[in-house]
Amino acid sequence: GEIITHKKSRAYKIGNAFMLAWPYANLKIMSSYDFPLSQDWLGPPTNGNGDTKDVTINPDDTCRNGWICEHRWRQIYNMARFRNVANGQSVRNWWDNGSNQIAFSRGNKAFVAINNDDYGMDVTLQTGMPAGQYCDIISGNKVNGSC
């Protein structure tokens, strides 16, 4: 029964990756501001006169000034793209290790592997994807045609 928030970013990113990879529901991606867990009643960041602070964007596209902007996290926006590419494709090639590692394809359009164990995922998997080279969009972006 734990609520996953941006404060535990690894778990939050894994949860969003699964949510965006699985073909279910109409989704909403959270984009929020920081607040102390002991004061969850606080509103958005404000300046000295009570006006809401502007969202300030960093060079890496993340936010500052008290804003989190989870929708700008590479892992989140790339998985939103994954969901769009995989739209209409069924789940295939399911694999799990019986613990905290899973993998599956969405037809022959997309494949995801998720590891929530404390050790590496060293397994050969059937992806269902056409032969070729693919980018790990969770760990990085495709830039100038390269991963």
UniProtKB/TrEMBL annotation:
In which family does this protein belong, per the annotation?
A: Belongs to the glycosyl hydrolase 13 family.
- Residue ranges spanning the membrane: these are none
Broad class of enzyme this protein falls into = hydrolase
Instruction: Spell out the Pfam families in the cross-references.
Output: Alpha-amylase_C
Instruction: Please give the name of this protein.
Output: alpha-amylase
Q: Give the reactions, separated by semicolons, that this protein catalyses.
A: Endohydrolysis of (1->4)-alpha-D-glucosidic linkages in polysaccharides containing three or more (1->4)-alpha-linked D-glucose units
Domain named Alpha-amylase C-terminal: residues: 92-146
Q: What is its EC number?
A: 3.2.1.1
Q: What GO terms describe the biological role, i.e. biological process, of this protein? A: carbohydrate metabolic process
One MF term in GO for this entry?
alpha-amylase activity
Q: Give the matching SMART domains.
A: Aamy_C
What InterPro entries has UniProt attached to this entry? A-amylase/branching_C, A-amylase_C, GH, Glyco_hydro_b
**Which Gene3D superfamilies does the UniProt record give?**
Glycosidases (3.20.20.80), Golgi alpha-mannosidase II (2.60.40.1180)
